[in-house]
Design brief:
Structural class: alpha/beta
Distance between the termini: 26 Å
Number of helices: 17
CATH superfamily of the largest domain: Glycogen Phosphorylase B
Order of helices and strands: HEHEEHHEHEHHHEHEEHEHEHEHEHEHHH
Strand content: 5-15%
CATH architecture of the largest domain: 3-Layer(aba) Sandwich
Helix content: 40-55%
CATH class of the largest domain: Alpha Beta
Number of strands: 13
Shape: globular
Radius of gyration: 22 Å
Length: about 425
Amino acid sequence: MFNFRRPSNNQKKNKFLKDQPLNIAFLTYRGNMTCGGQGIYTWYLVRELSRLGHRVIVINGPPYLAPLDGIPIKKLPSVWDAYDRFLPQPPRRILNPISFGEWLAIRTGNFPEPLTFTLRAYYFLRHQLEAGKFDLVHDNQSLGYGLLALRRWVPVVTTLHHPLPIDRKAYLQQARNIRERLRVWKFFSFTHMQNQVVPRLDGLITVSEAAREAITEVYNVPREGIRVIYNGVDTELFQPLGLPRDPNRLLLVTNTEDRKKGVLYLFEALKTLPPEIKLTIVDKINKNKYAYRLQKELGLENRIEFTGYLPPEELTRQYNTAALAIVPSVYEGFGFPAAEAMACGTPVVSTTGGALPEVIAHGKTGLLVPPMEPQALAEAIRFLLQHKDTREEMGKAGRERVEKYFTWEHAAREVTKFYQEVLNDHR
């Protein structure tokens, strides 16, 4: 248990005034940055909230968040490793009732983590909330039933990066047979729970106008009740290094297992490009992975390199030495790889899926094409590879755009304003 200083009654009376430090419990069911945008969002936003003077504890499930100076991190257990083996190690971990239910759901093809994580978070936080240790709970898109129980004591807000039924649609579009389609429906059955939870929370943040429109449509919540606060980019880490660029190398930074990332369409585009054009993919890969099988089916084994997960400094080097960064996604709630590439002065060829047109300025920092159209993607790549001067101009403009619109300090200040509004309404 973390013991934040409990304010006196007089302090409580005025605690929600502007610039008053808050005690925040920040929840994320997967914390590690290699798990995608949610981990990146948590690490940087929590760091900036702490720099603004707020007292934050992060409650997360595995794989866990990297350490943050001065910020306590509570690691909640899980049996998430049962996705890769029949029993977690050691097997006695499933003797806990929540863990047993989680393991059983995994073995039957479901995705239970959003539910089981919020139940564990409830049992961890309930006595501290009852004692007045926190002013607010901020959930990072777990959207499980446990959040509704936490609302007994404090307001609960969430960051909803995008509605997950969009992921389900992308998986179904690329399913090859009825068996795969049934597997997708079973895996995404947890979205029914999220449909119940989202409209009942005290506040919704999302990271783009496109995501706001999608949330309004999917969850039937008022558009004006959703606050758009853009993500930031670590411009000290992701920056131009002045390294020579390989004029024939493309870079893709993504989770290739996620069907909405559009890997299929990029591979089909690559097949039509000259054989000297190579693709580097920053992602962990093995023979059981979707992208590994797909490259073999399309005969692209000699043109694609998988790097595995990279430390941040090496990822920056990859952005700085590629001719182009490619974002072939069917949909993005924001698009961290696009913004990171721009911060490194790398032009981007991207689709118009979701929020990507809000991040990338078409014709200025990159080129945009419709999603799921390999030919259009290939033509845009071919054009920029043939025009070095245009690539350099776009790279400079991309860095300027990131510095102007996408910083974590600005995001944290806007989130703080949102907290204060929610707390005052709740009071």
